[in-house]
Amino acid sequence: MAFQPIDGKFQCPPADPIMTDPQRIVRDYYHPQKVQVVHPIEVVNRHHCVPVYEHVYTCSERDEYCGGHHHPHQGFPRS
User: Fold this and answer.
1) What b/e sequence results for 13-32 when a residue is b if at least 16 CB atoms lie within 10 Å of its CB, and e otherwise?
2) What superkingdom heads the lineage (predicted)?
3) What per-residue confidence (pLDDT) applies to 58?
């Protein structure tokens, strides 16, 4: 078809539409899903012997002769 003048202006005739392949639009929706995750825990009670010092003191008592001279009827002092 040729140009058609309308009101003194040239206009192109309407064209046939061109169809393309459809475009795919994907809309992802996410929904919560409960999944159990099991964490096993093992409690180990360990018992240890730890030395704790208990200080025990013994006491002894004795008599010593500290005189400067000897009595003739006494023996010599023991050391």
Assistant:
1) eeeeeeeeeeeeeeeeeeee
2) Bacteria
3) 96
